[in-house]
Predict the structure.
Amino acid sequence: MILLLLVCSLLLAACGGKDVDVGQPDYDQTKKMIVDILKTDEGKKAVKDIMTDEDIKQELVMDQAAVKNTVENTLTSEKGREFWKNSFEDPKFAESMAKSMKKENEQLLKSLMKDPEYQGMLMDILKDPVFQDDLAQALKSKEFREQMREVVTDTLESPLYKARLEEIAQKAASEKKGSKSSGNEKKQNNENTP
């Protein structure tokens, strides 16, 4: 009987000997565990299954509309306009924005150039005497001349342009040589004929 009590007490001591903390695990452990689970094949498959669920897709579409409305309202607000005004004053931001929209702007201009109404409006502007006077004044300005001088200098210093110019000069020289030699042959032929 004593032996039986001793075995039972040992079993109870063995089972209840550890002090188990049944509280919540800390944030870092939980985060690490979730990230590890998501990196497994089963985790990836579960995420794919969730993303293909029609209800989830519908929620995402509704969220996209909400995001779109929020962005539109923010951009058209007074603070939004002030933000864009200040942002476009920064040359780096303006350059990166222009580069990102280059393709869309080209497409827009190409489609506008084919539009008869746009062409007519553009012709009206070009024919406007006030515009022509302003353009003439701008072309005569010191700033424009300096800008043109810089453009011409940059073009003449360009290695591609230099190579092309050299090619044209060599071609002209060889043509001149060829015409001189054919002119000399004609002169000799004329002198030899009685």
